[in-house]
Amino acid sequence: MSWEGYEQCLCTNGHYFISGPHNPHNCPDCECFAVFINTVDDTNCDSFGEIPLEALQQVAAAVTETCSHCGHVKLIASPRYRVPTADEQKHLRHWRPGYGDTPLVKLE
Predict the structure, then answer these.
(1) Does residue 67 carry a pLDDT above 80?
(2) Less packed terminus of the chain by CB within 10 Å, N or C?
(3) Which DSSP category does 98 fall into?
């Protein structure tokens, strides 16, 4: 049997990124090391343990710039999030009771 999944990470600056289990935990935005790693088990396509991004507390919004000529939006700075405490993590974790694109529900 094999394990499938990914890791949700927050770096020291609060940037959110996804990493594979064998990938380095360096932030693609600032190259800082991850200080928060949440492992999500996706072996049975149920995203067991996933923490929805909307559930994390944002401490700084993304900064964007819009081109006046073509309307293209450029990301200047990524949003930043607060690292949840161990107790908060337990209450934030979700899973998919069915396979595929079923909605996430809270773990109890």
Answers:
(1) yes
(2) N
(3) S
Decide: 21 and 6 in contact? Cβ < 8 Å: yes
Secondary structure element (H or E) that encloses residue 87, with its range: helix 86-92
DSSP designation for 13? T
Distant-in-sequence, close-in-space partners of 103: CB < 8 Å, separation ≥ 6: 96
Pull the structure tokens for residue 89. 């993590």
CA distance 10 to 80: 9
Q: Encode pLDDT of 31-57 as tens digits.
A: 999 999 999 999 888 899 999 999 999
Which residues, listed in sequence order, are joined to residue 52 by a DSSP beta bridge? none
Q: What is the pTM of this model?
A: 0.85
Q: Is the pLDDT of residue 1 over 70?
A: no
Strands (E), 52-108: 58-60, 63-66, 73-77, 80-81, 94-95, 105-106
